[in-house]
Specification:
The protein has 17 helices and 12 strands. By secondary structure, it is an alpha+beta fold.
Length: 495
């Protein structure tokens, strides 16, 4: 009989804990679903998770493991291949879409969906940046900046500068011994985007800014906990420092423009300071700074990471490397003796290298998702998305879908031979009106680097089995610690 007391007490405790768990698991349902009335019955299948944190714990756990796709995999295993699931992500009731059809609808319907980035992300990147402004503001500013980033004339101007920096950097790195390949690639691509925006090449300024951008990015996809020791807290401090630097640059440029000796620099900052709306009004400093902060971030991170992975993948697959290298050798040998350096026409002749870049973009999927918000009640595939709910367009699921890409986790540029990606099955830069405005510039940078690397260098990784991290972006834990070796088998001056 003496044993019955503790046993019943244990049963009671377990019952209480079970009841508490049941209640906690229903809190988000009660707060966000019951108010929808009958519409809640048409919501996509899914799970809103725990109060406040929702599904974020499971998301972070998956992306800090060796199997990031287990996050979406858990939805598929529990609710089937519906391609659309309800969840609670980044502090909001959300719908995750994972198929080409659902993604296409969300990305292209500007009447039903607007940018829906988490408040924490907008705080970091900027309320006046492209992710925080209205459709009409975005359209106007994109029209201004796109030609200066992606236009044929602009790319022709940037090409010699990019090539010169690539050649010099590779030569310098080959003499350094062990170095973090990714870190130095990021400095290279940051120098390029700084030149485009600010005509600036100060090594000290660039090193300081790039370090702050590293902290900023670690906070973008973290939980918004503004407490010392957390990534978001550190990211907010980084943004404050970046804004202070850019404000001083804008102030200096404004003062220069008031003097008689001012010479127009023809960079993006000059363009932003001169643009006027239909009322003849110019942009405020906050708008200029947020746009610069966004562009300088996006303009170097994706290019550097994709370049690193393309280099790694080619080194891991000698057959593909030799095929890509042979193409580059042919292009140089066919070049007129009167020409020096690459041209846009030669870049466009790099058909196989383009497949290498596309395959890297697909396999790595630098941006795993983008955010939208429903402007009104929307129905997709028979499921209701309530007004105000966030939509996460999950690119990673599409790029790694075996029904679209057989053996999706295998690096195989030849899969693009005679293959035209169907609508919304290849989304490395997004789609619709919010397509990344710097996509052509990014691919140009990657192609120029790989051209010179393939002809004259090889990568010797110190830790080829280094663990892969997936947040904020996919990268080796050691930032690709390696040696760059010059093999001197081919010269771009040979004919």
């Amino acid at each position: 009989m003496d044993m019955m007391g503790p046993m019943w007490m244990m049963i009671a405790v377990l019952a209480i804990l079970g009841g508490l768990k049941w209640v906690l698991r229903r809190v988000n349902w009660w707060v966000y679903e019951t108010q929808l009335g009958d519409k809640r019955h048409a919501l996509p299948p899914g799970d809103l998770g725990w109060p406040f944190i929702g599904n974020m714990w499971f998301f972070l756990r998956a992306f800090r493991s060796n199997d990031p796709d287990s996050f979406i995999g858990s939805f598929v295993s529990r609710f089937g291949h519906t391609g659309i699931y309800k969840a609670f992500m980044f502090g909001n009731p959300s719908v995750i879409v994972t198929t080409p059809e659902t993604c296409k609808r969300v990305l292209n319907d500007d009447d039903a969906f607007k940018p829906g980035w988490p408040t924490s992300t907008v705080e970091l990147i900027g309320k006046k940046s492209f992710i925080g402004i209205s459709y009409y503001e975005h359209k106007r500013l994109r029209h201004l900046t796109a030609a200066s980033i992606n236009g044929h004339e602009a790319l022709s101007v940037y090409l010699p500068y990019i090539e010169e920096n690539v050649v010099c950097s590779l030569e310098k790195w080959s003499e350094m011994g062990e170095m973090e390949f990714l870190t130095h690639l990021r400095m290279l691509t940051f120098r390029i985007i700084m030149f485009i925006f600010l005509s600036s090449e100060s090594e000290e300024v660039m090193a300081a800014l790039e370090k702050e951008y590293t902290d900023l990015n670690h906070g973008v996809r973290s939980m918004a906990i503004n407490v010392p020791g957390f990534a978001y807290y550190k990211a907010l401090k980084a943004r404050k420092k970046l804004v202070a630097v850019f404000q001083s640059v804008v102030n200096e440029r404004r003062n220069e423009r008031k003097t008689k000796k001012w010479l127009k620099k023809e960079d993006m900052l000059d363009a932003l300071m001169e643009v006027k709306d239909e009322k003849g009004e110019t942009l405020e400093d906050e708008e200029i700074i947020d746009i610069m902060l966004m562009y300088l971030n996006a303009g170097h991170e994706s290019s550097a990471h994709t370049t690193m992975w393309a280099t790694i993948f080619l080194q891991q697959h000698p057959h593909f490397l030799q095929k890509a290298k042979a193409e580059q050798e042919r292009i140089v040998k066919e070049r007129s003796t009167t020409k020096k350096g690459l041209t846009l026409m030669e870049i466009r002749e790099m058909k196989y290298l383009s497949k290498v870049i596309d395959e890297t973009l697909r396999l790595v999927t630098f941006s795993l998702t983008v955010f939208r918000e429903a402007l009104t009640d929307v129905s997709i595939n028979g499921y209701a998305i309530p007004k105000g709910w966030k939509i996460l367009v999950w690119f990673r699921s599409i790029h790694l879908d075996p029904q679209i890409y057989p053996n999706p986790k295998e690096f195989n540029p030849s899969r693009w031979d005679d293959y035209a990606a169907k609508a919304s099955t290849f989304l490395p830069f997004g789609a619709g009106s919010r397509l990344c405005p710097g996509n052509d510039l990014a691919k140009l940078e990657i192609a120029i680097f790989l051209h010179h690397f393939l002809l004259n260098y090889e990568l010797d990784r110190v830790n080829p089995e280094s663990r892969v991290l997936y947040l904020p972006h996919t990268r080796p834990a050691d930032n690709c610690l390696a040696r760059i070796k010059r093999h001197n088998t081919f010269s771009t001056q040979e004919r």
